What we know:
Elements: H1 3-18, H2 30-36, E1 40-44, E2 53-58, E3 61-67, H3 72-88, E4 96-98, H4 100-103, H5 110-123, H6 126-136, H7 140-143, H8 147-157, H9 161-170, H10 176-189, H11 191-197, H12 218-226, H13 232-241, H14 264-269
Parallel strand pairs: 1-3
Antiparallel strand pairs: 2-3, 2-4
Helix pairs in contact: 1-5, 3-5, 8-9, 8-11, 9-10, 12-13
The protein binds zinc ion (ZN).
Amino acid sequence: MHESKKREIRINADTLRSKCTVGKYGLTDLFKDCEKLQYKLLRYPLGENANLGFTVRKDNDIVIFTNSSVRLSREIFTLAHELGHAVLHMGYNSSFIDNVATISGKSDDEKEQEANYFAACLLMPYSDVDRFLDYEVNGARDKGLSAMDVARIMSEFNVSFDMALNRLANLCFINQNQKLNLSTERTEKKVGNLLQSVGGNARLNIPGNEIKIPHEYIDYVIYNYNHNAIPRETLEIALEYCHLTVEDINDKLIDNNVEENDDLDELIGGLDI
Ligand SMILES: [Zn+2]
């Protein structure tokens, strides 16, 4: 990615960040910010092996979905990545579906790399990380960082241990050798224990399994069920969340016997994009 493009992304991420709720250093609740910013947010535990998120345009709305079956820190990163697509790429009027490859930076697609860079800048901007290390980690510059320090960074910036390590290395706060040592220390001590020992947010390391489906989207769910994109079980759970049963919406269901298919691509197909 060209430096000029990176600069443009940093400016965009910073603009969005200024509209978010920031704690002493890190964002406090990006999900709430997302709604405040008028994006239509959906969260659903689709399963660990399903896609991680998507961003689509639906009429005048931008709909963002995140899979809440993964660790919360990872879901937050997915959301930041999707916001990157929403801010940088929705002018193209296209949709983005993200999986492990696109979110972890293994895809060489330019827009995916841009969305990842946006997410990193949004969650851990250079100036705030620098300030955190200066104020909160005594001797960070001379003695380097311990895995407990990284756990503190995790907790403050609401990111995963890996994300914190990658970002610290990319911003040159640690070198590759230190990164490797910290990664080994993490494996030995386990992230959950590290978080506990620094009084950090243990929720980051476990799946949120949140279900958040705005009322208006129940129509999408019904549409997708009617087109065999989601199984009946998902329909029932989604309805339950909106305090409805299948009987309540029975007149909207089309009888069909085609094999069930819970492919997320089909779900997207139902969004009329
Ligand atoms: Zn993406």
